[in-house]
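[Automated response] Your request has been received and processed.

Submitted sequence:
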Amino acid sequence: MIVKVNQLVKRYGDLVAIDHLNFDVKEGEIFGLLGPNGSGKTTTINCLLSLLKYDKGEIELFGKSMTPEAYDLKRNIGIVLQNVAVFDELTVYENIDYFCGLYVSDKAKRKTLVEEAIDFVGLEDYKRFYPKKLSGGLLRRLNIACGIAHQPKLIILDEPTVAVDPQSRNKILEGIQELNRRGATIIYTSHYMEEVEQICTRIMILDKGRVVATGTKEQLKNMISVGEKITVEAYHPTPSQIEAITALPNIIGVENSGNQIVIRSAGGKNNLENVLETLKREQLSYGKIYSELPTLNDVFLEITGKELRD
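Generated structure:
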């Protein structure tokens, strides 16, 4: 087990930010850590890194107790925070060399690691550039290179794709998956549900400092009531035709607006087939039909609610 958290509690005065939190991260996982604003994600990460003192509980990394003085454990951790943390007065190469030097003192070895990190994030043509000359996407890739150059076993990435273009986002996500294939265990936080769904092998959803759901994306989708959504381009359906669709097994809602019927179903393997048979039986003329399975975004909203968070 790479990470093990047991009964973690963190309070800020009367506010309980982390409420008896329990979870683990297995070796080789890309572990998604999700939650609304204020759910406790950042506090959890800061406690993991011993950057924040907590009130109760135990945290183990690599099978050992994590403390502020556990430098042997910290050498095996890479951190890429949401806010880009590099030195404006240093070049791309110098920045990566500096952060790698916090863990690797041997200059020859460090030079190799820095070059490998530059190649990995695709900054070969920008070694002598200063951060102010880089685009947002290049800055993010520099930030990642600084966090992973020493080749840590555990990498924590907090919103690494915020405010970057689709090409840079794709490059970053591919890089994260490659790091994982090379042996790194990764904890990944993001508000982009499609990213988490794309790369994470297991996902935990936090809300109000507690775990509200954990599992693979398939397991999480099976937890919610909403299943397949079927959209039918129909031509003037009658009330009786809508009622026939509504009466089908597993159908939990039917909305008819203009020439479109949106059918929401619970779990079931034959929902689309049943709808098609009903359309034929009811002699309802229709054009295109779209079938969409629930997304991780659907899961997140149903579990945590749709109210705005601060």
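Summary generated for your ticket: DSSP finds eleven helices and 14 strands in the chain. The longest strand covers residues 15-25.
If you did not submit this request, please reply to this message.
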